[in-house]
Automatic annotation (TrEMBL):
<dbReference type="InterPro" id="IPR050950">
    <property type="entry name" value="HTH-type_LysR_regulators"/>
</dbReference>
<comment type="similarity">
    <text>Belongs to the LysR transcriptional regulatory family.</text>
</comment>
<keyword id="KW-0804">Transcription</keyword>
<dbReference type="InterPro" id="IPR005119">
    <property type="entry name" value="LysR_subst-bd"/>
</dbReference>
<dbReference type="InterPro" id="IPR036390">
    <property type="entry name" value="WH_DNA-bd_sf"/>
</dbReference>
<keyword id="KW-0238">DNA-binding</keyword>
<dbReference type="Pfam" id="PF03466">
    <property type="entry name" value="LysR_substrate"/>
</dbReference>
<dbReference type="InterPro" id="IPR036388">
    <property type="entry name" value="WH-like_DNA-bd_sf"/>
</dbReference>
<feature type="domain" description="HTH lysR-type">
    <location>
        <begin position="1"/>
        <end position="60"/>
    </location>
</feature>
<protein>
    <submittedName>
        <fullName>LysR family transcriptional regulator</fullName>
    </submittedName>
</protein>
<dbReference type="GO" id="GO:0003700">
    <property type="term" value="F:DNA-binding transcription factor activity"/>
</dbReference>
<dbReference type="InterPro" id="IPR000847">
    <property type="entry name" value="LysR_HTH_N"/>
</dbReference>
<dbReference type="Pfam" id="PF00126">
    <property type="entry name" value="HTH_1"/>
</dbReference>
<dbReference type="GO" id="GO:0005829">
    <property type="term" value="C:cytosol"/>
</dbReference>
<dbReference type="GO" id="GO:0003677">
    <property type="term" value="F:DNA binding"/>
</dbReference>
<keyword id="KW-0805">Transcription regulation</keyword>
């Protein structure tokens, strides 16, 4: 199978607009050329990706799976172009991160310092957000990375454990609990 970026763009435009004419206009193609492009994608992948009639265009079950793959491919392609542009122009690149306020103060400075030793052209934009909003910001592509205090169950994100932390209970030395060797 050999699909082009143009085909991926056309497919994603139709996913977004659910209308051949509007999707074709959004990527500056004529409607017949756009229809042919969608047909060529379906032929290349070997399945129908859209159910369509004169009033509606809907993704098939296979189309939903392909949409996720196509979105990932376009994201990677655009990221690669951006990195190449930065390399050619010797520019800094920005990494956006959403994290809990406590993480932005305690953990991120060390990670950012380490990353800047490896990639000195990087700059960082950090947003203080609650964990659920951090995950949403990543899935909605408002930020590139999120640092949260729980393992997300969202199938649209990939997560990796980066830190383990110990917590301690503290109480006054005159408190009755002070006599106990262990607390539950």
């Amino acid at each position: 199978m050999n699909l082009s970026i143009k085909q991926f763009r056309a497919f994603l435009a139709l996913c977004e607009h659910r209308n051949f004419t509007r999707a074709a206009e959004s990527i500056f193609l004529s409607q017949p050329a756009f229809s042919h492009l969608i047909y060529s994608i379906e032929k290349a992948v070997g399945v129908r990706l859209f159910d369509r009639n004169t009033k509606r265009v809907e993704l098939t079950a296979d189309g939903i799976v392909f949409q996720s793959i196509a979105a990932d491919m376009m994201r990677e392609f655009n990221l690669g172009l951006s990195r190449w542009h930065d390399h050619i122009n010797n520019e800094q690149f920005k990494i956006s991160i959403a994290a809990l306020p406590s993480i932005t103060v305690k953990l991120l400075p060390d990670y950012i310092e380490y990353f800047n030793q490896v990639e000195p052209k990087a700059t960082f934009e950090v947003k203080d957000l609650p964990s659920d909003y951090c995950v949403s910001a990543v899935t909605n592509e408002a930020v590139e990375l999120g640092v949260v205090g729980f393992l997300p169950k969202d199938p649209n994100v990939e997560s990796h454990k980066i830190h383990t932390e110990k917590y301690f209970i503290v109480f006054n030395k005159n408190h009755p609990w002070q006599k106990n060797r262990s607390l539950r």
